[in-house]
Amino acid sequence: MKGREDLFQLIRAMSKSEKRYFTLDAQKSGRKGSRYLELFQALNDTVEYDESTLKQQFGKNLPFDKTYLYEAILRSMRDYRSANSYAAKIKEMILDSKYLYERGLYEQAEERLESAKKLAYELGDQLSIIELNKEQRRLWKDTKRKGFEQQIDILIGEKDDNLRKLHEELHFLDTHDQLLVEIRKNPRLAEGKQRELLKARFSTLLKALDEEPTSVQGQLRFYQCMALFSQLTGDADKVFEYYNKVVSCWNARPKYKDEEFYRYVLDVSNLLHAAFSNDSKRHLIPGLLAELEQETPANPHDQQVLFQKIAVYKLVYHINTGDFSQTDSIIDTIDHWLKQYNFSTAGELVILFNAALLLFMAEKYELCKQWAERIISRPRTTQRQDIQMGIRLIHLIATYQCGDVEEVEACLRSTQRYYHRVLTEKTAFSPTWYTGSGAFTALPLANLWPSTAKCVRRCSI
């Protein structure tokens, strides 16, 4: 391992079910009392990594034990994930075929390769298909069975077709990444001459409109490219149209969708964002969210990603439409998800902020305070300082609305101390506010109130 804390970070990133699987796997292997399992449990109970404390407990062999444990976790997680991974099954069937071949069971080896190829075609996994093509040709050349010449011709033809599809897929992957770079460099919409230069640069992408890609992943990337290009040129209707085609592509290929569910959720998120950005499409958001809630991911990581996206977009939708009729049920559901899954710090902050904001707008001030305090009471972190600043204003107003004078005074003093620290400390985060005088400057608490709405809007996205 390169870093001291690599193992600690790996264990922190594991889900509860993954940790349980690893522990049971180690115990079944008769290693219940082994040092590396003790080390796993010690690190799992640790809040902050402390090398010196671990050395006192595990001695001079700690570096070796850490490396051993790191590799053991990854081996266990390969087994854990392979049961739900089609790509892993393809790799396993290739290994099975090689074993059967070495034992002289050529027909069984061929059957294994054919099963793997069928699955690879369903996934649109061109790299695996090409690898399987090589294995089949090797098998036919070594055994020289009846029909050898015809079969070799067929396999060569398949190889040529698959290489073309792989080239097509990689071409649109390159284009997709170039468009992403362009968006990061120039977030503003391209206009006039800039738009013409953009069309010239991506002319091959626009030519593909006449003859769309035929490969599974090539077609998906093509629609993603056209959505990004439409975003750059400011065509909101096209952005929605192409992300809708992206999602339809996923739904038409259920095995590929299951295999890459995380990426599917991201594309549905892009579709939802496109609907939010287009007045004529916003009425479609509840239906899209309802469809997303019907999904049944195969592993905890995908469930966590799914619930995080649903929570954020559902909250933002109700905040922006002013529909507070479902506030209680939404908050209860989100509270359950937060207790069940380990969201990233930034992701959890976004959910907590929007939940507090929805409660604030629904005039449920006491509950709003409680959700705001779930951010305020957290250990200090530099992540999403915009949220941490905005939530204190919401908390202060909610406290005032609850009517306890003493609590309001205490909250005001606490808020003032927080802003004084944030605005004066020399940290990586240096918040500044535009005063309209041509310069940026730090403002005292009293002058931050006009900026509250702006901060709230930015945090809600």
Can you describe this structure?
Helix 3 (35-44) packs across helix 5. Mean pLDDT is 85; it is low at 426-461. This protein has helices at residues 6-13, 16-28, 35-44, 51-58, 62-82, 86-102, 106-123, 126-143, 148-185, 192-201, 203-207, 216-233, 236-252, 254-259, 261-276, 285-293, 300-321, 327-340, 345-361, 365-376, 385-402, 405-424, 452-460, and strands at 433-434, 440-441. Strands 1-2 form a two-stranded antiparallel ribbon. With 461 residues, the protein is an all-alpha fold. The radius of gyration is 28 Å and the shape is globular. The longest helix has 38 residues, at 148-185. Strand 1 (433-434) and strand 2 form a beta hairpin. Among the domains are: 6-82, no CATH class; 86-145, no CATH class.
Helical residues, percent? over 70%
Shape: globular
The largest sheet, given as strand count, sense and whether it forms a barrel, is:
2 strands, antiparallel
- The assigned structural class equals mainly alpha
> How many helix segments?
23
Supply the key terms:
single chain, 461 residues, mainly alpha, two-stranded antiparallel ribbon, 23 helices, 75% helix, 1% strand, disordered C terminus
Quick summary:
The protein has 23 helices and two strands. The protein is mostly helical. Helix 12 packs antiparallel against helix 13 (236-252) and helix 21 (385-402) packs across helix 23.
